[in-house]
Design brief:
By secondary structure, the protein is of the alpha/beta class. It has helices at about 5-15, 45-55, 65, 75-80, 100-110, 130-140, 155, 180-190, 240, 280-290, 300-320, 350-355, 380-395, and strands at about 30, 90-95, 120-125, 145-150, 160-170, 195, 215-220, 235, 325-330, 340-345, 360, 365, 370-375. The strands form three sheets. A seven-stranded mixed sheet has the order 2-8-7-6-5-3-4, with helices on both faces. Helix 8 (about 180-190) links the parallel strand 5 and strand 6 (about 195). It is globular, with a radius of gyration of 22 Å. The structure holds pyridoxal-5'-phosphate and (2S)-2-amino-4-(2-amino-3-hydroxyphenyl)-4-oxobutanoic acid (3DJ). It holds the Pfam family KYNU_C.
Length: about 400
């Protein structure tokens, strides 16, 4: 760096076309680099939630299912998320947790597989644990074999026995971005269905679900989509699969005529058949309000800023932190990088504690990984420089 990192940060912030979005969030002093775990609060959400509670629930009560659009919220909010993950309308439905949607998607994919003699569910061996636990249970329930495989070995592991492959788009620990287009086509060439977990990519980078012919996908909304703690997840079922999608959790909300309350189940058309029971309206409408910060924001611009931020943070770490104290686990090439930087560091727990005490909030993945998430909507280059400088100070530089 010829210019000082702080000077460069100021110039980058001044040129940042997304910089104005930060004021939409309730962020005080300090540097928040944990939006890959829990996104920050958009400042207008409390008032909107208060309206849902006091007027919609408090005054309109039961009428709100229709008059306040409660009943149709899962599909409506799904359609708001859809463009952020490259999906056309009518394919994304919001509800339940990511874990529950992984279950629906994996069992649903096994049932969609045209060859019932295929024996294997291949799962990303480096997956966030919940996906692995659920895939294992789904395998037992469907009489399949679970085959854990590192994403880099996935193409070689696929074969005539593969029914379904479940892959994380971005690795939660290292921040590695897996190649969704090429892995999806390898899965399809093997005659299997591709299920993607988008928790760490949606809202941080383009996903292109329709363009790459993904079969099913799931994701959470409390990270880069800023929906709030425990906000509902979503399920994507590609239009071409919807008529045959046979959810393992057919509830009255996925029935074609819920209020007929018939003893026999008849699945609703479209993404609605991915619903189960009564939606969690308070969380769901908080999410709907939170998604307004995306109005007019291009996901390509978000991706460009995300890469610039993580590049710059790594540059500042290299400039400030003595050699050998941290090692980046995050790939340096852009094509393999999500929106976080993971640094392996001795005594990582104590280091993160001291960073947090200095107002730099990242998180720790035991035993030795410091994670720093970069949410382009509200993180700036000055934040990246301050975080690297605090890290160097904590490490005694
Ligand atoms: C890749 C991935 N899948 C799933 C989850 C969690 O699922 P749930 O929303 O059910 O807690 C997380 C994080 O919590 C995650 O990082
Ligand atoms: N979902 C979480 C929660 O309820 C509590 C604390 C953390 C989380 C997370 O999202 C963890 C996150 N998926 C991770 O990448 O580690």
């Amino acid at each position: 760096m010829s210019e000082s990192p702080a000077g460069k940060a100021a110039a980058l912030d001044a040129a940042d076309e997304l910089a104005g979005l930060r004021k939409l969030f309730a962020l005080g002093e300090g540097v928040y680099l944990d939006g890959n775990s829990l996104g920050a609060l958009p400042a207008h959400v409390p008032e909107r939630v208060a309206d849902v509670v006091t007027r919609q629930w408090g005054e309109l009560r039961i009428r709100s299912w229709d008059e306040s659009g409660w009943w149709t919220a899962p599909e409506r909010i799904g359609d708001r998320i859809a463009p952020l993950v490259g999906a056309g309308p009518g394919q994304v439905v919001v509800g339940d947790s990511t874990s529950v949607n992984v279950f629906k998607a994996v069992v649903g994919a096994v049932r969609l597989c045209s060859d019932p003699t295929r024996t294997d569910i291949v799962v990303d061996a480096t997956t966030f644990p919940t996906d692995g636990y659920i895939a294992e249970s789904a395998a037992r329930m469907t009489g399949k074999r679970l085959v854990p495989v590192a994403p880099s070995d996935l193409p070689a592991a696929l074969g005539p026995n593969t029914a379904v492959a479940l892959v994380n788009h971005v690795d939660y620990r290292t921040g590695r971005l897996h190649d969704l287009p090429s892995l999806t086509s390898a899965i399809h060439e093997a005659g299997a269905l591709a299920v993607w977990d988008l928790c760490h990519s949606a809202g941080a980078l383009p996903v292109g679900l329709d363009a790459h012919e993904v079969d099913l996908a799931v994701g959470c909304t409390y990270k880069y989509l800023n929906g709030g703690p425990g906000s509902p997840a979503y399920l994507y079922v590609a239009e071409r699969h919807q008529a045959a999608f046979d959810s393992p959790l057919p509830g009255w909300n996925s029935h074609t005529d819920p209020f007929a309350m018939t003893p026999s189940f008849e699945a609703a058309p479209g993404a609605t058949r991915g619903r189960v029971g009564t939606p969690d309206i308070l969380s769901m409408l908080a999410l709907e309000a939170a998604l307004e910060v995306w109005d007019g924001v291009s996901i390509d611009a978000v991706r460009a800023k995300s890469l610039a931020l993580t590049d710059f943070f790594l540059e500042c770490v290299a400039a400030y932190v003595p050699p050998g104290r941290v090692t980046s686990l995050t790939p340096s090439d852009h094509a393999s990088r999500g929106s976080q930087v993971a640094l392996r560091c001795e005594e990582a727990p104590a280091v993160m504690e001291k960073l947090i005490a200095r107002g730099v909030v990242g998180d720790l993945r035991r035993p030795d990984v410091l994670r720093f998430g970069f949410t382009p909507l509200y993180v700036g280059f000055g934040d990246a420089e301050r975080a690297a400088s605090a890290l160097a100070e904590v490490l005694g530089a």
